[in-house]
From TrEMBL:
Its main location: cytoplasm. Pfam families: ADH_N, ADH_zinc_N_2. This is Zinc-type alcohol dehydrogenase-like protein. Residues 13-333 form the Enoyl reductase (ER) domain. It is found in: Cytoplasm. One of its GO terms (molecular function) is oxidoreductase activity.
Length: 336
């Protein structure tokens, strides 16, 4: 099968940072389904894994943790899918990724592709939808179905992939959404997705949020990095919650959190698959929920750019765009 792989961890401007190669077609066993990959999306985690490091590889490594495709075959223990089903998923970071013609993935972390979307549109969603959904509803304990309507949430990094779907999920839950963005095009993007207010994360945020009429906010999701930690602690309400996806090395003073009895949560959407948790199937359920919401017209895909075909050249382009830090929404690469 065709695949795009790396054999060394190199800078993205190195022409050998990705190579086009041929690999054996895998065979589905146990709970695995074999998916014929039609489109993939690129996320910051891809660039972090690919980044230069002195770590040898035993052979070609296939990255990619966002895909949409068609089930080719199923393992003997599979009950949720059959050959011919259209699916979308983020996969498992401990296994070969989706930058290949065929991929094995555990059925319990796979959802049925939204019927109203193309494969390119669907591929933009799984990793970020799982991350935002788990951050809000599993970690912060927000009620998905509107019982917390009227509460406020600050999304730091609102124009990125996770923020783009997060704005929509938060609005569907009835929250007042304050999103951060810093450029005219990203400000327009988060407003288009439904943000009630926009503040600039490149300028002092506390004063901006106060100027909107919020002394504190009920929830904060940090979807870029932890440079804004102290501002987040100042803005969170007493007994509120902050969730972050950043594995930071920056100082995180906790005295303000203690004085407010506020909670801190970490979101890592690969945790369930990596640790084979008993509730792995929750990712199947939440992806199906997101698909139903999309097909009902309540939320939309966050794809912003599509490159064709899936090859080393376009993967290098996509990684370079992500590393530049100016992308809005999701970058998708479609078709072999």
């Amino acid at each position: 099968m065709k695949a795009v792989a790396l054999t060394r961890y190199l800078p993205i401007d190195d022409p050998e940072s990705f190579i086009d190669t041929e690999l054996p077609k895998p065979v589905a066993e146990d709970h695995d389904i074999l998916v014929a990959v039609k489109a993939i999306a690129v996320n910051p985690v891809d660039t972090k894994v690919r980044a230069p490091k002195d770590q040898p590889l035993d052979g070609p490594r296939v990255l990619g943790w966002d895909a949409s495709g068609v089930v080719e075959a199923v393992g003997p223990s599979v009950t949720l899918f059959k050959a011919g089903d259209e699916v979308y998923y983020a996969g498992d970071i401990t296994r070969p990724g989706s930058n290949a013609e065929f991929q094995l993935v555990d059925e319990r972390i796979v959802g049925k592709k939204p019927q109203s979307l193309s494969h390119a549109e669907a591929a933009a969603l799984p990793l970020t939808a799982i991350t935002a959904y788990e951050a809000f509803f599993d970690r912060l304990g927000i009620d998905r179905d509107g019982a917390d309507k009227g509460q406020s949430i600050l999304l730091v990094g609102g124009a990125g992939g996770v923020g783009s779907i997060g704005i929509q999920l938060a609005k569907r839950a009835g929250l007042a959404v304050i999103a951060t963005a810093s450029r005219p095009e990203t400000i327009a993007w988060v407003k288009e997705l439904g943000a009630d207010h926009v503040v600039n994360h490149r300028e002092p945020m506390v004063e901006q949020v106060h100027a909107l009429g919020f002394q504190h906010v009920d929830h904060i999701a940090i979807f870029n990095d932890m440079r804004h930690w102290e501002e987040a602690v100042e803005l969170i309400r007493p007994q509120g919650g902050i969730v972050s996806i950043d594995d930071t090395d920056l100082p995180m003073p906790m005295a303000g959190m203690k004085m407010k009895a506020a909670s801190l949560h970490w979101e890592f959407m690969f945790a369930r698959a990596m640790h084979q948790t008993p509730d792995m199937i929750e990712q199947h359920h939440l992806l199906n929920h997101v698909a139903a919401e999309i097909d009902a017209g309540h939320i939309r895909t966050t794809v912003a750019e599509v490159l064709k075909p899936i090859n080393a050249e376009n993967l290098r382009k996509a990684h370079a765009l992500i590393e530049a830090g100016t992308a809005k929404g999701k970058i998708v690469v479609e078709g072999f």
